Amino acid sequence: MKNLIRLLAVLMIPVLALTSCKEDNNNPGLQEFETLTSYMAQNDLDLSNVLDGWVKAATTDIVDPADNSIPGFFVMDIRSSDQFELGHIPGAVNVAVADALTVAETAGKPILVVCYTGQTAARVTGLLRLMNHEAYSLKWGMAGWNPYFEDKWISNAGDFDTPNWVLTGDPTPKAEFGEPIINTGETTGAEILRARVMAALQNTSWGISKTDVLGNPGNYFLNNMWPITSWDEFGHISGAYRLNEDLSIAGLRYLNPDKEIVTYCYTGQTSSIISAWLDVLGYKSRSLLFGANGIVHSKMVNSDVDSAKKKSWQGEGSGSGNSFQYATGPN
């Protein structure tokens, strides 16, 4: 009898192990994340694909100087209706952010998304691209279209004195973390993606100010999105990682899903589209508003290091400071 009991115990070990593994694999939140990332990888929705050629400057390459319209694009202006009526690009259509995907499906042309500063437009552009729309963001937003609209950039580009912006030191060494939990209730990659994009369009707390971040940098998982040469030249937020080259579906393991991830770049525009991509993937992701332009603008605006002047508000070759005409009134 004792031998029989021992035999049964041995036989039960693999059964229990398989049951345990099955329970782990049946965590719906982890299953959705794995289904989503697999779908995105198979459908060319990695970060490099989403970022490919995503921004357009307001130049005569796209602007018709005869009437200051942008005829090759469906111009989607996502500012408030009040601000739209005060002035907008001729031919633009005023669209609420929450309705961007619905409107995009009947656009009939490549989409150019326009906002105040280029940051919200970048986010919406990324979300539309994840749904396979040909979408672009207007660099600098309406602030770069005509001086009448530039107040948000004028008031935010500058230098900010803080001990938590440092000029020396290496990036925090990368480490590996677990996966975020996604619970949409959907089962296919396409369904999960659409649900996550729709949720991201409803998210209005994706931006974060420099005072919040630089006041308490240890509260966040900070990711610097520029080359090491800019890191060395302009400095960085204390404690930041630099996952620029590693940020991809394969590199998601280097992000901590348990902390609020703050991505920062030169202008806040690239970080906004990256933040949207991470948001869809289940991370608590935010973008540093106005980027390094709000911290070390005077150092960047005349610098040729990594073409920083082109990434600085009113920098030479930046595409800001235009004087195109604008229309007024509703749609």
Give a concise summary.
By secondary structure, the chain is α/β, with parallel strands linked by helices. The chain has one domain (1-331).
Shape: globular
How do the helices and strands follow one another from N- to C-terminus? HHHEEHEHEHEHEHEHEHEEHEH
Approximately what portion of the residues adopt beta-strand conformation?
5-15%
What is the typical, i.e. mean, pLDDT? 93
**Low-confidence parts lasting 5 or more residues at pLDDT below 50?**
1-24
Structural class: alpha/beta
The rounded distance between the terminal residues' Cα atoms is 86 Å
Task: Give me the count of strands.
Answer: 11
Main sheet: strand order: 1-5-4-2-3
Count of domains: 1
**Number of DSSP helical runs:** 12
Per-chain topology:
Elements: H1 2-25, H2 28-42, H3 47-51, E1 55-56, E2 74-77, H4 81-86, E3 93-94, H5 100-104, E4 111-114, H6 119-130, E5 135-138, H7 151-156, E6 165-166, H8 189-202, E7 207-208, H9 210-215, E8 220-224, H10 228-234, E9 236-237, E10 260-264, H11 269-280, E11 285-288, H12 297-300
Parallel strand pairs: 1-5, 2-3, 2-4, 4-5, 7-11, 8-10, 10-11
Antiparallel strand pairs: 6-9
Helix pairs in contact: 2-8, 6-8, 6-11
Walkthrough of the structure:
The protein is α/β, with parallel strands linked by helices and 331 residues long. The protein has one domain. The protein has helices at residues 2-25, 28-42, 47-51, 81-86, 100-104, 119-130, 151-156, 189-202, 210-215, 228-234, 269-280, 297-300, and strands spanning 55-56, 74-77, 93-94, 111-114, 135-138, 165-166, 207-208, 220-224, 236-237, 260-264, 285-288. The chain has a five-stranded parallel β-sheet. It has a four-stranded parallel β-sheet with strand order 7-11-10-8. A two-stranded antiparallel sheet has the order 6-9. The longest helix has 24 residues, at 2-25. The N and C termini lie far apart (86 Å). Mean pLDDT is 93; it is low at 1-24.
